[in-house]
Every structure is written in structure tokens, then in C-alpha cells.
Amino acid sequence: LKHYLNRIEALEPQIHALLRLNPEAEQEARAVEQRLAKGEDLPLAGVPVVLKDNLCTRGLQTTCGSRILEHFVPPYDATVVERLREAGAVVLAKANMDEFAMGSSTEFSAFGPTRNPWDLARVPGGSSGGSAAAVAADMAPVALGSDTGGSVRQPAAFCGVYGFKPTYGRVSRYGLVACASSLDQVGPFARTVEDLALLSDVICGYDPRDSTSLKHEPRFAQALEQKQPLTVGIVRESVQVGNSPGVLAALENFRQTLEGTGVRFVEVSIPSLEYALATYYIAMTAEVSSNLARYDGTLYGLRVPGRDVSDTMMKTRAAGFGPEARRRILMGTFALSSGYYDAYYGKALKARARIKADFDQAFAKADVLLTPTSPFPAFQLGSKTSDPLSMYLSDIDTVALNLVGVPGLSLPAGFEEGLPVGMQLIGQPLQDERLFSLAQHFE
Ligand code: GLN
């Protein structure tokens, strides 16, 4: 804990990965020592973890990177936080993020951007950029983020660390502030596959408080001991999308290295992949517009009093939401409005089913699929904030997995001009553990 607190003191002023430290961290670490002395078996004894600021922490502010929740102090811990504490982990700090997890660069935080530890002029990715940057800069050994359309995997790739989005339903969403509920999943960051597995074993598992939670025991550490003869399908459409030279080189190097360990590679096709971004940005904004309706100045968070109830709501929302949150609420409300519902939201649901069917077909030919995590490495701060479309395009490799609900692991796979490049392994539903045994071949 002292090591990481020292690192934070030295590096946080330049990187701004964190929104606040847990003032109780040292006290909590001492309590863990006592549990150990009593003979408790704690798989994460004393391990400091950083949590994205959309994971509820009892007594510790949880802002979602938004002014509207700036002073919100949850009265309870998210299930994942509860599980981490039970396992002996110590909450070190809350991490910066794009407002309500909407963004790909952490520049849409109401509390200022996070910088990429590899190059301070570049973004760390997003929306869990604070968590990824903290792990990359050794300000924490591990962290949690949330992934609605790539927000764990893409920042992991940009920061040169491991990031994992489990099969939808394997991690409880209880206490994760909702972004787009049918897509949201909590996921870990780490600097080694082994650490990623340790954390996954703790956070995955059934929770009766999340109605979409699945009964499926995690066996991640165990998977690291297994070597299965796997077939990996390289997704043609993702290779053809216009990747930067360093990303293509890393893909080829990955293939050659794994072929040397007996993994077989085939080419697979997911024809509907080209509709994934459009489908995602309709489905996700629709869900966002509904989920964010609760921030109305009456229940919790910011309240700007107005003439009457509706004036209070308008003033509160105008003062509390930043530009990207507004844009998505407007787009989502439009997509759901009568007269447009069938043309947009209804269509997106059909496209989502089609993409799922295409994934099923690809999985008939391969156990695991492979794409780059992002077509390019970390971009310059400020280069995409005024162009929402180009920001959305950076999610091209990640969003389909959330639409389909399948697991994805991003692993560090090389560099392009000094910037980390990530590869994405995609698993069949509930076959998350396979991704770990495969990733380990490359470590
Ligand atoms: N970048 C994507 C978006 O802006 C993903 C967000 C996420 O996974 N939370 O919607």
C-alpha cells in the first residue's frame, strides 16, 4: 500500500488517473492484517485496487465523472466491491472516467482528462481510462472498470495492460451505476494474465441482486494450468477495416508466436460486423436516455431549484450533464420516440440479432476469435472531442461483443512508435476461461 501511495504522490499530478483516494485505506489494510492473523484465507490479502468511479463504494463519493453526482455518497457497496473486500483487497482510490461511461478517451470527465502514461500528450482511452492509466503507471497493481462497448478493453490496449470483459451476466451489476443495462459489464485490469485471473475469480459469480446474473462458477486461475488445442479465427472484416501498420504487424506477430505453440489459425467472416457501430450507438443511447432519466434533482445528486418541478428538473439537468451525456440523451430519446421507434430502435434490435447469428456461425469454425482491440494506438488529446463521429469510430472493434454478450480480453501485443498496441481475443458465451489460457501463451 505504501509503495502505491508513493507512486500516486509522484505521478498523479501529471496523469490525473484518480478522482479521490480512499482516506480509510491504511486502516482497512490493518484490518486485513488482523483477519490474516486469525487464519482467514484471503486470496487478495492486502492487494490495493483502484475502482472506476461508477462502482458504488459505501461512504466514499461515487461521481461517475459527472457534476450531477459530484456529491453523491452511496450508502452501500457494489457487489464487486463487497467481493473484493471479502477477499482481502483494499480500496485504494476511485478512478477518473468519461461522464457516465460515455466516451473513448476519458476527455468527457467533468473533472478533467486523464493522460496516457506512455505519452502525456495522448489519451489513455476510455471510458475506464483512469483505471487503465493507474495500472499502467504502477499506481495500483489491479483495477476495475466497466465495459459497455469497449471501455475496459480499449483503454487496456491504449495503456499496454490486460483488460477483460466477461460474458454478460458473469459479473454482478448491482451497485454499478447503469449506463446501458443490456450491455454493461464490470471488468478487471492487470499487468499480467495471472493477476487478471486472480481478480476475475473473485468478482465473477452469481448474485441474486442482479436479475441478469448467471449461475456459473469462475475457474480462471485453474484455466492457466490448462493447455487446450484451440483454433483461433481471425475476423476478416476487422482486418480489412483500415488498421495502422503497427497494429497489422502486431496481429501477424501474435499469429506467428501462437502458431509456434500449436494453436491453429483460420479465417472467419462476420458479414454484419459493419453494422455493429450503428447498431450499438442506437441501442446504447436508447438505454442511456432511459437510465439517466433518474437524475432529475429530486432523488439524489445535484439539485438546482427552479420555479416549479419541471423548471427544477430542467435547470438541474442543464447544469449537471456535460456535452456527451446530453448528446446521447437526445439521440436516445429520438430513437425511442413514437414515429421513430420502428425505424431506429426496432431496427437496431433486429440488427443485434443478426450480428449474434453471424458470431454463432464464426464460432462454428473456431473456438476463439481474434481482432485488434483498436485499429490504431492512443490518439492525441483534443483530436477527437469536437468530432463525435470519429470518436465513435474508434470503438469499431469492441462494441459488437457487448451487443452479442460474449467475453473479450485485450492483451498487450506490441508497440507502434513507442505506443502500446492491443489484440482482442473473443470467446464463446461462458467460455471466458479459454481466453486466459490462450493469452498466457503470448505473455
Ligand atoms: N466508447 C464507447 C461509448 O462511448 C464505450 C463506452 C463503454 O464501454 N462504457 O459508448
UniProtKB/TrEMBL annotation:
Family named by the database record: Belongs to the amidase family. GatA subfamily.
Keyword Nucleotide-binding listed: yes
Protein name stated in the entry: Glutamyl-tRNA(Gln) amidotransferase subunit A
Keyword field contains Transmembrane helix: no
Reaction it catalyzes: L-glutamyl-tRNA(Gln) + L-glutamine + ATP + H2O = L-glutaminyl-tRNA(Gln) + L-glutamate + ADP + phosphate + H(+)
Coiled coil regions in record: 15-42
Active site per UniProt: K52, S127, S151
Pfam families for this protein: Amidase (PF01425)
Subunit structure, interactors included: Heterotrimer of A, B and C subunits.
Keywords: ATP-binding, Coiled coil, Ligase, Nucleotide-binding, Protein biosynthesis, Transferase
HAMAP family: GatA (MF_00120)
Membrane spanning residue stretches: none
EC code: 6.3.5.7
Alphabetized SUPFAM superfamilies for the sequence: Amidase signature (AS) enzymes (SSF75304)
Known role: Allows the formation of correctly charged Gln-tRNA(Gln) through the transamidation of misacylated Glu-tRNA(Gln) in organisms which lack glutaminyl-tRNA synthetase. The reaction takes place in the presence of glutamine and ATP through an activated gamma-phospho-Glu-tRNA(Gln).
Boundaries of every Amidase domain copy: 1-435
Molecular function per GO: ATP binding; glutaminyl-tRNA synthase (glutamine-hydrolyzing) activity; transferase activity
